[in-house]
Specification:
- This protein is α+β, with helices and mostly antiparallel strands.
- Among the domains are: 198 residues, Aldehyde Ferredoxin Oxidoreductase,  A, domain 1 (4-Layer Sandwich), CATH 3.60.9.10; 196 residues, Aldehyde Ferredoxin Oxidoreductase Protein, subunit A, domain 2.
- The chain has 24 helices and 17 strands.
- Strands 2-1-6-3-4-5 form a six-stranded mixed β-sheet, sandwiched between helices. A six-stranded mixed β-sheet has the order 8-7-12-9-10-11, with helices on both faces.
- A hairpin with a 2-residue loop joins strand 7 and strand 8.
- It starts with 12 loop residues before the first strand and ends with a helix.
- 54% of the residues are buried.
- The structure holds iron/sulfur cluster.
Length: 587
Amino acid sequence: MTTEQYAIPGLKNVLYIDLTSRSYYIKDRRDLYEKYLGGVGVATNLMLEEYIEGTGPLDPEMPIILSTGPLSGVYPTCTKTVALFRSPHNGELGESYAGGRLAMSMRYSGYETIVIKGASQYPVYVAIHDDKVIFRDASSIWHLSSAIDVGKVLRDVEPGAGRRSIIRIGPAGEKGITYASVNVDTYRHFGRLGLGTVFGAKKLKALLIVGNQEIKSPDHNAYRKTYSKLYDTIVKTGLTEKYHNLGTSENILVLNELKGLPTRNLQGTSFEGAETISGELFAEKYLIRRVSCAGCPIGCVHVAMLRRPFSKAHEYETLNISYDYELIYALGSNLGVADPEAVLELIDACEKAGVDIISMGGVLAWATEMQQRGKISTVETMGLQFSWGDKAAYLRAIDLVVQGPNDFYAALGKGVGYASKKYGGEEFAVQLGGLEIPGYHTGLGNMLGLTVGFRHSHLDNAGYAADQAAFNRPLSDEKIVEAIIEEEDRRSVLNCMVACLFARNVYTYPNIIEALKSLGIEKTEEELKELGRDIFRKKYELKKKFGFKFEELTMPKRFFETTSTTGKLEEDRVKRAIELYRKKRGV
Ligand code: SF4
């Protein structure tokens, strides 16, 4: 049974999918788009509308909201889709971004935002072909051992190549690992905070979207002019060159030199094996190509080729594996792995499982230190003896975490915060706000940014960038707090456009205003800035509804034991900075 309020979807409509009744309807929410433009602004307001007090992250009533922005599919690098949900990993606001073709396909199908509610009784995948929404039985792909294979199967059975996006979960999402990811097309992901777990709880194996509509600009000449200007800024000014050249993995040597690269469960911040897992080495020995999200001229996705034997009779398989800074940190320096091929194999195992690699790396690093300190034994690890750099043990452990055959691995499947409450070792469980940290230990800005961020992600406010500035010239703690606040608001505006943050310096306020104008949307710089502040307030309202309290934040001792880029941190100093942030923010 389907219910349609509008037979032909047009732009600025929201598609609601109910998995329980396998039905859908469309609403015109121009009111939200006019005020919040799109992306995270619209998604946050829809979440506030839809959230039923007391609903848990995996309850059927808890929605998943996927949202694009006014520039999606229209302007270069506006390639991202934001997913909003309640995180099963830390219970807080789940907010995740992915590129690939999803934003383009959503936009060309006419659905700027999709709200998914309910839960199916049996595995399903949803195929959206323009104005048709079809619920298909996914039992035959539910138990596939690789999220990559799920994509291959759906590519064969569903038409629409070129304008089609396929997002799906792997075994980790089916098994309820709280940091399961959603694989998006090829090499892109909704990585952090467990969107894949929410898919799994809804028995939603995949979502496929094909869009064939055109997007028309009211003033084609103005559009062409602005497009050319933005395109040229991206490709000719050097602003984004780093991302194409070595990609973010360039940061391995940089952070290592600055003593900001978390190593061996953040027992150190420089790694003696940094050279052999550097972006430079991967490029020289393994890089075979770069790929791009649809509509991006940068091409930051670096793909390595790994040839490995699978029988003694000299038979080999060739794997194509994408890598970047965070992945190399999480499964390289943080696990003491200096062998680049081992890093690639570990990445591949996580990619197939469909799991957040940063969290998995954090979990394995904590387990290694636990065993080395004698807090757990081979009884808990089922015979595994973890030691830094041991690829074979880590590959086996990834599988065990996903399968959860005993209490210990089941606890690891819920993250270091949960596992350390049960087994001890909270003082070196390297998480903030319940989320295993990304690859930075640069100082106050980073730690404050991760602690106060909406979802405890470095992408909320780039606190590490404030530390970089402080490294070059002295910066008071107050200035660091102000830099974080300013960046949070700016990023909220960019996230309404759902622009790739690698192009954040291209999409300045004047450029956003010009791009919007060419599409018939008039905004001033002050209006955009107020939009950023408004989204902050709304997101904090949501966070508080989900149970967030500043008073309950904990900061493991490890952060204060290990020297950062800008020196050793003191807990009191971080606490004072948090209070200053709260005062300035009024939260
Ligand atoms: S820079 Fe990379 S992540 Fe960003 S849009 Fe381009 S290819 Fe995608």
